[in-house]
Specification:
Structural class: alpha+beta
Mean pLDDT: 82
Number of helices: 4
Oligomer: single chain
Number of strands: 19
Order of helices and strands: HEEEEEEEEEEEEEEEEEHEHHE
Largest sheet: 8 strands, antiparallel
Low-confidence stretches: 246-255
Radius of gyration: 29 Å
């Protein structure tokens, strides 16, 4: 009888041990499966985010996607005090270099963009990757125009076109043709009206694009709320940021300028171009007179 009881207890213990081992084996086999499922979930999330970004560029910044109005943002949007905008991957909208009207006040009122001399039929191209938000005609304003929202948060407007060759909701890459130069709308001669906005706020295109040199001014642009249209406002606002102040410093300060190094550039050449000493250039950029300049490098010149 005692022997039988011992056998029963031993059998129970062995069964429990077997169950425990089996459970551990099951958990061990399940762990890689769980990791794979987590990986699948992560990939699915990444794909979903990319799909949303493709559908609505800069969707985390903008409150809506509208085909109705160029200036569609008011109290619905929260404009940050500062925001760093990536300008890499750009393409010049036109190969023409002559600016016929700058951004700012003029006799007709406020001019919110830059006018570049082009001829009817000249190819106009997208400045950055993005999605076409509007393809419209405005008889007393932009004429035939295109609005593109870009992944970097900007919206660019191309006005007075003779022909639009993209459609609304079409995704375009930087450099893709989007229209032909023209003289439509409120225009006194063929030209491209090129306008840049961030969450509805106007940015002077000359702070980003150097049309005479066919290049960008710098690889990234610091947006400062309320100080993006005029040189004087922007320089004071940047000075305030540098000093850690919230208000605008009243002391006059020259506009910050940048230079992108090209083949053949030297510190002496750059100093003559921007009327600044070589020692000051070195101080502004933390370099020495003997530092080798790399093509594509950005130097602060004021």
């Amino acid at each position: 009888m005692i022997l039988k009881c011992i056998r029963v207890v031993a059998a129970v213990v062995w069964a429990c041990a077997s169950v425990n081992v089996s459970a551990q084996d099951l958990l061990a086999r399940q762990a890689p499966v769980d990791r794979k499922l987590k990986t699948v979930d992560s990939l699915a999330l990444i794909r979903q985010i990319k799909a949303e970004q493709a559908a609505y560029p800069a969707y985390s910044l903008y409150p809506n996607w509208s085909h109705d109005r160029v200036h569609a943002y008011g109290k619905d949007v929260q404009v940050p005090d500062t925001f760093r905008i990536d300008l890499t991957g750009f393409y010049m909208p036109t190969t023409h270099t002559k600016i016929t009207s700058k951004c700012g006040p003029r006799w007709r009122g406020m001019h919110n963009g830059l006018d570049i001399k082009v001829y009817i039929g000249d190819t106009i191209r997208a400045a950055f990757d993005g999605k076409v938000r509007m393809v419209k005609y405005e008889r007393r304003g932009y004429g035939k125009y295109v609005v593109i929202r870009h992944d970097n948060g900007l919206e660019t407007i191309y006005g007075h076109l003779s022909k639009q060759i993209v459609k609304e909701d079409e995704y375009v890459k930087a450099g893709d043709p989007i229209g032909l130069g023209g003289n439509t709308g409120r225009s006194t001669g063929s030209h491209l009206h090129f306008e840049i906005r961030f969450l509805g706020e106007v940015i002077n295109p000359e702070f980003m694009f150097d049309f005479p040199k066919q290049d960008i001014v710098t690889d990234s642009y610091l947006f400062v709320k309320g100080a993006n249209r005029y040189v004087s406002q922007r320089s004071r606002a940047l000075a305030a940021i540098e000093k850690g102040e919230s208000g605008v410093i009243e002391a006059e300060k020259a506009a910050i300028r940048y230079h992108k190094i090209r083949k053949g550039d030297t510190l002496g050449k750059i100093s003559r171009l921007y009327h600044v000493s070589i020692d000051r250039l070195c101080q502004l950029n933390g370099i020495k007179r003997t530092t080798t300049l790399r093509i594509g490098q950005i130097l602060k010149c004021s």
